[in-house]
Design a protein that fits this description.
alpha/beta, 7-stranded parallel β-sheet, NAD(P)-bd_dom_sf, oxidoreductase activity, acting on CH-OH group of donors, SDR_fam, Sc_DH/Rdtase_CS, Short-chain dehydrogenase
């Protein structure tokens, strides 16, 4: 699928969604001063125009990293994230395109290397979801594009980045609580999240001997553009996150510290693991 056709199909669903149009606005601001945990590092964050990706980019920048911001088509949100990174005194690079296309991923990594000359952290965060009541409602195009974005894109970007990783590099993937609990209306999305968890564990085994750590974060219900733009009804949104033990949805800046921990040397003895910022839901794994 070409990036143009993917963008057109996504726009028909209202995805990825504008953070600038959300009310209330998600909370992305880092909660504490930086301590230099990513000084001199370069990070690439997919889906960094909004939501969890924006919060991760902001926190990484506060901790000293320059950030490449990959996103599909929400240019206004991406510009805002770039301004956030630059306000922290770091460099930002925005790259628009479809991570489901290998050629784009190859070109994006090359842009990062041309600009910064190194790549230390890859955050595979971008994803899409399309709620359906019944498995027969999932079209072939939807099934293909959900897998293409959510898991193929991780393979493509990791393949392109692999030759540039040195010892000490880190990959952090975004899976989901739906991988562990299931989600009756998110069959294709949840399936990709299961694949991401298996990808994380297997890639860790593959790369750990070279000093490259691979971990993942499995957020619970987090208030981001993915939810209202991903087909959730107003009624469902009114009670979004209430089923968690904490009784509320999480904010992006409550998830970003997990991505920071796994990317920095604080997690030097962790690989193949999954962290669970999910409002207190107990899962196995």
């Amino acid at each position: 699928m070409s990036s143009n056709s993917h963008e057109e199909m996504i726009r028909e669903d209202g995805l990825p969604g504008h953070e600038s149009r959300l009310d209330p606005k998600p909370e992305w601001e880092p909660r504490y001063p930086g301590s230099g945990r990513l000084d001199g590092k370069v990070a690439l964050v997919t889906g960094a125009d909004s939501g969890i990706g924006r919060a991760v980019a902001a926190l990484y920048a506060r901790e000293g990293a320059d950030v490449a911001i990959l996103y599909l088509c929400e240019h206004d949100d991406a510009r805002k994230t770039a301004q956030i990174v630059e306000a922290e005194g770091r460099e930002a690079l925005t790259i628009a395109g479809d991570i489901g296309e290998k050629s784009f991923c190859d070109a994006a990594i090359q842009q990062v290397m041309d600009r910064f000359g190194r790549l230390d952290i890859l955050v595979n965060n971008a994803g899409e979801q399309h709620p359906d009541q019944d498995i027969t409602d999932i079209t072939e195009d939807q099934l293909r594009r959900t897998f293409q974005t959510n898991i193929f894109g991780m393979f493509f970007l990791t393949q392109a980045a692999r030759p540039h990783f040195k010892k000490g590099a880190a990959i952090v993937n975004c899976t989901s609580v739906t991988m562990y609990q299931g989600a009756s209306e998110l069959l294709d999305y949840s399936s990709t999240k299961g694949a991401i968890t298996a990808f994380t564990r297997s890639l860790s085994e593959n790369l750990v001997k070279d000093g490259i750590r691979v971990n993942a974060v499995a957020p619970g219900p987090i208030w981001t553009p993915l939810n209202p733009s991903g087909g959730a009804s107003p009624e469902k949104l009114a009670h979004f996150g209430e089923s968690t033990p904490m009784g509320r949805p999480g904010q992006p800046n409550e998830v970003a510290p997990a991505f920071l921990f796994l990317a920095c040397d604080d997690a030097s003895y962790m690989s193949g693991q999954v962290l669970h910022p999910n409002g207190g839901t107990i899962v196995n794994g």
